[in-house]
Amino acid sequence: MRNGKVKAFAEIPAGIFENAPATSExxxxxxFYSTAAEFSAERRWLEQxxxxxxxxxxxxxxxxxxxxxxxxxxxxxxxxxxxVKQLSGGRIGGxxxxxxxxxxxxxxxxxMLMFMIIMLxxxxxxxxxxxxxxxxxxxxxxxxxxxxxxxxGKLLGNVAGSLSAVAIYAAGGFAVAAYKGWxxxxxxxxxxxxxxxxxxxVLLFSxxxxxxxxxxxxxxxxxxxxxxxxxLMCIPMFTWLQLVREPNGPLAVRRRxxxxxxx
Length: 263
What we know:
two-stranded antiparallel sheet, mainly alpha, single chain, 58% helix
């Protein structure tokens, strides 16, 4: 194996076909030796083949039909659905079937899009503020307008540029979804909220980046000051999976104690 002539080998215990009781080290197991044993495709293939053969031999020793055992031990599927609601005329609607992993990765895609747009919009303001201050350009500009109007104009222009980038990426994403037939997976009712939070996020982080750029003279100084901002921006990356899994959980929703519940 070290010379590359053999990729892996396995040690199969003698009593693996018997219903041997588990020892202190666990049930009898096949020992698989390889340089990349945990993630190798050979280990997964060997595990599947050995288990199928062992089950067939054990069923045969117990005079059991494998087909009957498979039918008796077949799992019952559990289908997730949304809540039902009463429509006009007394009809019942809603209760759509869940979309599986789509409910997980669609929010992740929108979160990554928002994060990318924020980074593309906020970082240039940091560099621009530093260059204008070091090059004495800000003094010339402040001779014509106030500092408030200067910074506000930068922020509004940055928001417009970020919305243009969102429109470009959204058009590409919608074109791909229409071509693949994934239009039903897009949460159209949440799109206005996405734009609102996108604008607010760009305003917040762009103003922070611009303030940091106006207070330092070198990029190294700005990196140390932006560490808390980076941590704040990365919080959704750390919590998105738990929030999607439990949107009504304690991490996503702060519940007020009931007046009947003693504090």
